[in-house]
Description:
Blueprint: H1 3-6, E1 10-11, E2 15-16, H2 20-23, E3 40-43, H3 56-67, E4 70-71, H4 72-79, H5 83-95, E5 99-102, H6 113-125
Antiparallel strand pairs: 1-2, 3-4, 3-5
Amino acid sequence: xxxxxxxxxxxxxAGYLVRPYAIxxxxxxxxGSDFALITQVAARPxxxxxxxxxxxxxxxxxxxxxxxxxxxxxxxxxxxxxxxVVKVLCGDLLDKxxxxxxxxxxxxxxxxxxxxxxxxDGIRRL
Length: 126
């Protein structure tokens, strides 16, 4: 049983008692950051939330990311939440300076223009 299921928001028979859009306040994305599914999230050592005031999902995300950085997709799977919800919640934690993120390199897998031109030239010669 995951930590999100230990909370009062999950019933074994009925499932989630609160819909994902209610968890995020109706938001579908975070305005400040664009999280990829493989963005790494790490809890800051000093990050502490008042569990009586904050959403249990925020606390669960912090706990998951304390030992080692976790990808957005890993957090979503472990908490059994949609990745879009996790992205919004991680954005909220980032705004509160509770987490640090490491976005994937966008251009690291892209071939160079020179390589593409050589491939096109080679195809034309065929």
